[in-house]
């Protein structure tokens, strides 16, 4: 078991002036703690992504669809799909879980 303290991660953001922190890396998944907006452009990945919004609010674009997002929301992005956050009203923080491999968890190839 691995315990993750989001309070400690927020403190590390401030100390390291970072936008991404790697939290956990295992064979089947990677977990990052992320803050938006940030200067790094979002790019499609070869793994499925699950964003758990821990704080903040704004909009998300996944493919051609747009969604309002806020604390407590979960956003799924299938591998290979363009996505980004915009119109951020309050800084977003999220746990980002990358999983999968050559196929998405939905069984489709990119």
What attributes characterize this protein structure?
110 residues; mainly beta; Jelly Rolls; 6-stranded antiparallel sheet; disordered C terminus
Describe the fold and architecture:
The structure is a single chain. This protein is mostly beta strands and 110 residues long. It has one domain (20-99): Jelly Rolls (Sandwich). The protein has one helix and six strands. The protein has one helix at residues 6-16, and strands at residues 20-25, 29-36, 48-62, 65-70, 74-77, 83-99. Strands 1, 2, 3, 4, 5 and 6 form a six-stranded antiparallel sheet that branches. Strand 1 (20-25) and strand 2 (29-36) form a beta hairpin. The radius of gyration is 14 Å and the shape is globular.
List segments where confidence is low: pLDDT < 50 over at least 5 consecutive residues.
103-110
Q: What gross morphology would you assign? A: globular
Helix content: 10-25%
**Topology-level CATH name:** Jelly Rolls
At the first level of CATH, the class is Mainly Beta
Tally of alpha and pi helices: 1
| Estimated share of beta-strand residues | over 45%
Structural class computed from helices and strand pairing: mainly beta
Mean pLDDT: 84
Radius of gyration over all CA atoms, rounded = 14 Å
CATH superfamily: Jelly Rolls
Whole-Å distance between the termini?
32 Å
Number of individual domains: 1
Order of helices and strands: HEEEEEE
Characterize the biggest β-sheet. 6 strands, antiparallel
